[in-house]
Structure formats: structure tokens, C-alpha cells
Amino acid sequence: MDSVDFCCQAGSIHGILGENGAGKSTLIKILSGVLAPSEGQVIFDGRNVAYRSTAEATADGIVCIFQELSLVPDLSVAENIFIDQPPRRFGLIDTRKQRQMAKEILARIKCEDVDPDAHIRELSLSRRQMIEIAKALVKNPRVLILDEATSALTSNDVQTVYDLIAELRADGVACIFISHRMHEVDQLCDQLSVFRNGQHIKSFAKGALSEAEIVQLMIGREITAQFPPKRDKSLGETTLSVSDLRWEDSLKGVDIDVHAGEIVGLGGLDGQGHKELLLALFGALHGVEGQISLKGRPYRPASPALSKRLGLALVPEDRKTEGLMLEMSIGDNLLLPNYPEVSKNGVIDGGMAKAAIEKAVALLQIKVGSPDHPVETLSGGNQQKGVIAKWLMLNPDVILLNDPTRGIDVGTKQEIYRLMRDLVDAGKSVLLYSTDYAELIGCCDRVCVMYDGRVVSELEGDALTEKAIVAASLNIHTEAVA
Fold first, then answer.
1. DSSP 320
2. What are the strands of the beta sheet with 62-65, ordered from one edge?
3. DSSP per residue over 416-464, as a string?
4. Is 249 part of a structural domain of the chain?
5. 203 & 99 share domain
6. Dist. CA 214–CA 194, nearest whole Å
7. Same-domain check for residues 286 and 198
8. Residue 330 lies in a domain
């Protein structure tokens, strides 16, 4: 960051916009006590403050909900919510009171379905994100910083968070809201600030600039259409065919075909079987029943290793825990699925490995200082590029994508959209699950909407609209909501 001036007022919601690596995360780390500024000062309530830890910032009323979850998987929901300040009795943790207090905050965030005694690892990503929010709310913040806090949420949970933020603003709390979803910023924020390349570019009132003008400030260049054009062409062969696919209570008879040269979207509300479908196809679930064919041949996804060899690739939901080994180097992460291809007689060939890494970095234009640096030093968008690049190095025929643009900036999203279109234009097949309806409509040739473990509607052409996706997500006919 370089000579940044930034001001947020009590009783307002201030949105911060910028590409990954623009300086947003550095700013909030300084405000919340994770980092100390090398120059300049932070003034809070008219006082110069220099927090040496997040605990000091929290004690002063500055609470941050980071994009990367800070929950302990093997502790209970209640234990995680009150991990910093558990209620005590006679010097010991009062587990009964802690459980009751957890039930109260869960009711406030409309998560009554969550058992306070459940372990975090048992919850979906959306529910884990809501627990992270509950953990922040019990600290009674005076400044609440939300870093992509809605990116993993279901539509119902997003609305709950909107309502909670509005309540906090009415109570005089200052909210700093970071999101790559422009409609969220437009709906929530009073003031906006744009950052680029570690600098504060401009602050302005909501509505003062158009979305196109804001995006241009963010990326510093003229913008093209958000989604690449879909090309009218005859479909290729059926690359992947699924019939009556079943798994436990999540998949109840899924039928879907994916052809060479097309992007097929998976739409619908969270928890309807999309993620399990992708995992089942990649061989990550045991006990899957039904018929699958891959490139015209019967296919039984026994393991991810087999699926990889047969030409499938999966970009998982959570890049931090499922897609990357954070403490390993960028280069080693890129090579993880590719070691057989860069080895001779079981020994890694240094020249081949270096060439493969350079090719992957160039393919997705990953911004790296050195491939030897830990992958956790990359921005979120560049980490996601790394997850995608390591699989594309294998030249797969079918690419399974689980919400691949969640929590990344608009510029990187456009790069991924163009990449998907280039892949299918080259004859590949893409099966894309996304929580962003605009993304499904803009990217996909067809969208299969799932409800209760089945595909209940297939939309394409003029029928592919947000209204139709929402109606199918609720398993009702579009005419019923006309």
C-alpha cells in the first residue's frame, strides 16, 4: 500500500472495491491489528491507535470477518462462537450458559437449524460462514469489517446478512463492506472507495458513478463485455452422460448430458445436490449408483486418480482447504496432479517441471513473484487461477467447476469466463456450478436447475432468464410467479 487516505463514518456502510491484490486486504489487516503500518497513522474515535494484535483491535470495538474462515473444525459451534470470551462460572467455562447464548445468537442470524453442539466440520460452507458472522456479532463491534462475507452464502443467508448490517448501521455501527458482487454493493452501501495497485483511487457516494465507470477505475483500463459471446454451432459428441445417478439423500436420480463444445450450468438453491454431483462424477464419493458414460464408454468413478487418468478435472469449492496446499510453493502446487508427466523413471525431471510451471503461469497469467514462494502469498484471484491451471496442464476433456469465481475480482472473473469459452471452442466440455445467476445466464449454453437431488428444469436460449432459474429453484412453474 502507498500513501492511502481512507475514512469511514459511524452509522454508515462503506464499500471497498478493487481487484485482488489492489490493497483491500492489507488495509483491513492494518485496521484490525494483523499488520502495523510502516508509515502514516490510524485514527479511531479521535485517537491515534496502533494495535499490536487483533485482540487489541477487538477490545477497542474493531471486529473483522475475514474471507478465509477462522473456525476450528473439531470444536463445536458454541465453542467456536465464544472461543475468545467464553462465559465462566467459578473460573470455569459455563458450558450450559455458553450453549444457551449460542442458541440465542443462532436465532438472531436465522440459523435455528444448527445444533450448538455440532462440530464445525459437519456443517456446509454456507453455514460455517454464518457461524463466522455470529462469532463477530457477539463481540459487539463498533466497526464491523466484512471481507467477502457473503461469497459462500445461500440466497436466504445473504438476505439475513443484509438485514443484520442494516440493523447495525441503524445502531451507529460503522460497517466496511468488501465484495466483488456489484449488486451487493449497490444494494447495501452508502459510500464507496476504489483501490488499485495498493493505492486509494477515489471515494464517492453510491450512485455517483455508473457500474462501467466503477469497473474501469478498478482495473485501470477500458472494459470489454463481461461475458464472451456464445457461438452458434452444432454440438459435438456427448462427452459425459449421466442417468438415474443416486447417492445417499443428496442425489435422487440425476439425468444430465454434456456435449463437447458447450458449457452446461448447474443452478438452484444451495444444498440441492450440485456439489455432490460434481464430487460423484470425479470419484470422490463412495456408494454412488446409476449409469455414467464418458466419451461413449461406461464409466465407474471409483477414485479421483482414475477420473484424472480418464480425462476429468475438478476445481473444488474451497481453494484454501480443497484446492491448494497453502504452505507449499506455488510451483509444487501447480505440479501436484502432474508429477507423472514431469518425471522420468519415477524421478522428477527439473527441466520438465520448470517448463510445466512456466506454461501454467503463462496460460492463466498468474501474478507470481517467484514459483518458489508459498502459494498462500498469492492474492485470492491468483490462487484460484493456480487451482484451475494445475488441472488444465493435464489437458482434460471434461472440466467440472464448483463456483470457480466465488470471492474473486471482476477482472479475474472475465479472464476465467474467456478461458471457459476458449476451452469449449476447442472441443472441451465444461460443467459449471455457480451461485451467481448472472454468471449462469452469461456463460452457459444450457442450465440444468436442481431441486431435491434431481434436475427439474433445463433452460436455454430465450428461456434462460433469472426469473426462470429462480422459479425452477423453488420447483414451481414460471407462470405461477408471473
1. I
2. 62-65, 143-147, 174-178, 13-17, 191-196, 199-205
3. HHHHHHHHHHTT-EEEEE-S-HHHHHHH-SEEEEEETTEEEEEEEGGG-
4. yes
5. yes
6. 8
7. no
8. no
**Residue where a domain terminates, one of 219, 253, 282:** 219
The amino acid at residue 224 is T
Instruction: Please tell me whether residues 25 and 136 are part of one structural domain.
Output: yes
CA quadruple 74, 80, 86, 89: dihedral positive or negative? negative
Judge whether residue 138 has pLDDT over 80.
Answer: yes
**Residue 53 domain boundaries:** 13-219
pLDDT band of 180, cuts 50, 70, 90: confident
DSSP annotation of 124 reads -
Torsion of CA 219, 225, 227, 229, to 10 degrees: -150
Burial of 310 (0-12, 13-18, 19+ CB in 10 A): middle
pTM score, whole prediction: 0.65
Average pLDDT, the chain: 89
Structure-block grid coordinates of residue 388: 484451475
The answer as to whether 413 is a domain residue is yes
Q: How far is Cα 137 from Cα 310, in angstroms, rounded to an integer? A: 47
Cell of 90: 467459578
Question: Do 199 and 84 belong to one domain?
Answer: yes
pLDDT value, residue 253: 95
176 and 212 co-located in one domain: yes
Same domain assignment for residues 158 and 295: no
Give the mean model confidence (pLDDT) for residues 172-183: 88
Confidence of residue 254 (pLDDT cuts 50, 70, 90): very high
Highest mean pLDDT among 24-33, 153-162, 210-219, 293-302: 293-302
Yes or no: say if 266 and 433 are a contact pair by the CB < 8 Å rule.
yes
Q: Burial-class residue 111 by CB neighbours within 10 Å (0-12, 13-18, 19+).
A: buried
Q: Measured between alpha carbons, how far is 145 from 64 in angstroms, rounded to an integer?
A: 5
The pLDDT tens digits for 422-445 are 999 999 999 999 988 889 999 999
- Identify the sign of the CA torsion 327, 151, 177, 215: positive
How do residues 364-378 score in pLDDT, each as one tens digit?
A: 888 888 899 999 888
pLDDT at 291 over 60: yes
Query: E strands along 52-123, which residues?
Result: 62-65, 88-89, 92-93
pLDDT over 60 at 146, yes or no: yes
Query: Residue 417 maps to which CATH number?
Result: 3.40.50.300
Considering the chain, what percentage of its residues have pLDDT values greater than 70? Answer: 97
Number of domains in the chain: 2
